[in-house]
Give the backbone structure.
Amino acid sequence: MSPLSLSAEQLTKRFDHFTAVEGVSFSVQRGEIYGLLGPNGAGKTTTIRMLLGLLRPTAGQGTVLGYDIVRQPEEIRRRVGYVSQKFSLYPDLTVAENFNFYAGVYGVARRSISARRGDTLALVGLADQEPVRAASLPGGARQRLALACALAHQPDFLFLDEPTAGVDPISRRALWDLLYALAASGTSILVTTHYMDEAENCYRLAFIYQGRIVAEGTARDMKEQQMQGQVVELDCEPLDRALTILRQAHLFDEAALYGSTIHAIGPDAQAALVQLPGLLADQGVTLHSAEVIAPSLEDVFITRLRHVDQSVHSPA
């Protein structure tokens, strides 16, 4: 089998006068977890739908498992699994009935379904839930059922479109442990997300924004090579007043809440640090600490998107 499981070259999709995806290019290796990270409306789902052969590209080309996304979409869909953004199984059917239905849709031989069901439900931690109606399952278990159904025909490639949206942290962690195990066995995975911590789990990832890929690499590459400026973490109170002051003072290019702290990003953080204590104290803000830190993936993402916005709106 080729080490390359997916190739997208200049994929573009236009709807009338709106361009949803423009010139997207990337590849996924066999056994790799590749992430598409971007805000809602960035083009993640449209990209997946083109790669599945559900939408015909306006321009560009692509292959999945060696099959052309325009000429051979049925071959692709027989060999991949897909978990959509929303729970798409049948709530009134039991766990076993949902699995049986999708196994049949995927062409699994009837004589093999029972054994396949037992193995796959055990893999996702639902072995004791076969008689339970899907509607009665908690959110994390429903997503694991959706994944089990996508795995019914033992696909070589998985497309997961925001699979953990609305899922509790423990269930999210369990799902990612399962994805690691699948990748280790040779399954290639393309996952979309807007959770920064999930993006860190991907072997490689791309930032997609306004239909375009604006950065690509490992999470480490992103932090070391894509970051523009330094990050200062401020522990202060009240946070809302401090954030307003920082933005009005223009000491930094960007300032945003980060949990119970503020991350401020600028080209010369050390110089800004000299002015910060007096600036904040004069306006009633207590500064407990301020230090230059290594950027998080979220910091990189914010600065890259800001750079793109500036490039688009700057005069020619």
The domain at 4-217 is CATH 3.40.50.300 (Rossmann fold). The longest helix spans residues 297-313.
